[in-house]
Structures are given as structure tokens and as C-alpha cells.
Design a protein that fits this description.
The protein is an alpha+beta fold. It is built from 5 helices and 7 strands. It has a single domain (about 5-174), classed as Roll (Hypothetical upf0131 protein ytfp). It has helices at about 10-15, 75-85, 125-135, 145-155, 160-174; strands spanning about 5-10, 20-40, 50-70, 90-100, 105-115, 135-140, 140. Strands 1-3-2-4-5 form a 5-stranded antiparallel beta sheet, sandwiched between helices. The model has no long low-confidence stretch (mean pLDDT about 95).
């Protein structure tokens, strides 16, 4: 029987927005979580961009895999394309992730940053990231809230990401 999984590494972990059968902690190899995407819609504007997470090449990323019922798959993919592909900064990829608790590999749908896109921010220092995040706001709210919610959910799930945590510390100290 074919299974349908979606990999979340940012807001999809704490606000998937679609129906799923189960969720499992998962690790994706070959990509890492990074605040590397200028947000022109959800957490910023073209005139005052925010920063959101992307899967960038290299390393690994612990996140959450969501299993979707086959009969809902087409609707979930349509929803994710509308949500994640507003400006086409992500590439929709079929990748492999390891379900940590079950120690098995499954195919997942994931959204990987397109490094050739104008919204790709590249590698910024934590100070530069915190400065951008601290004052940006888009149609989905404050950029700071996005980072804080992601970090809180990651703590609840036992997920550590030192790069993102350092930005969170700088935001808390500001």
C-alpha cells in the first residue's frame, strides 16, 4: 500500500493546515533548516521583507512527517502549493525521510528553497537575521512571532537547531 507523507520543518510543524492521519518525528538528510528566504507576503512585504525558513542544501533536518489519506492527497497538495508556492521560491521535491520512532524510511513531499530565486537570502549572520525578523510583518503576522512559534514547537518536540535558537536569543534580548 502506498503512503503519502508531507515533511514539515517550520510553520508546517505547528500549523499544518491540512487533515492528516498521523504525525511522526522525522529526519531528512541532504538539507538543513535555514532562515534563508526573504518573505514578501506572509511575514514581510517587498518593501520590508521578513525572513522565513527554507530547506537549504547540506546537512540534515529534524522535523515532522504527516501521513495523509490517499483520498485527501490531491487536496492537500493543492493546499500546500497555494500556501508554499505564492512566489515560487520553493521547489516541490519528492524526498526520503527517516521516521525516527519507527526507524523506517518513507517518501515525503517537501519544499526546498530555490537558490536561484530573487528571494533566496543566502547565508546571513544571526545578528542580520534577528534585525530583519524583529521589524518585519506580512499578511500572516509578525515575523518575530513566526520564529518564536517555530522555536517553541521545536522545544516541545525535543528538536534542537542551534542556528535558529541563536536568532531567538537575539530577538529575546532586543
Amino acid at each position: 500500500m502506498r503512503e503519502y507523507w508531507v515533511f514539515g520543518y517550520g510553520s508546517l510543524m505547528w500549523k499544518p493546515g491540512f487533515a492528516f492521519i498521523e504525525q511522526q518525528p522525522a529526519r531528512l538528510h541532504g538539507y538543513h533548516r535555514a532562515l534563508c528566504v526573504y518573505s514578501w507576503v506572509h511575514r514581510g512585504t517587498p518593501d520590508h521583507p521578513g525572513l522565513v525558513l527554507g530547506l537549504d542544501r547540506g546537512g540534515s533536518c529534524r522535523g515532522m512527517a504527516f501521513r495523509v489519506a490517499e483520498q485527501q492527497w490531491a487536496d492537500v497538495v493543492a493546499y500546500l502549493r497555494e500556501r508554499e508556492q505564492v512566489t515560487m521560491v520553493y521547489r516541490e521535491e519528492s524526498l526520503k525521510a527517516r521516521l525516527i520512532d519507527q526507524d523506517r524510511v518513507v517518501g515525503v513531499l517537501a519544499y526546498v528553497v530555490d537558490r536561484s530565486h530573487a528571494q533566496y537570502a543566502g547565508v546571513l549572520t544571526p545578528h542580520a537575521q534577528a534585525k530583519i525578523v524583529s521589524s518585519a510583518r506580512g499578511k500572516s503576522g509578525e515575523n518575530r512571532e513566526y520564529v518564536e512559534n517555530t522555536l517553541a514547537h521545536m522545544r516541545d518536540e525535543g528538536i534542537r537547531d542551534e542556528r535558529l535558537a541563536s536568532v531567538g536569543t537575539l530577538l529575546a534580548d532586543a
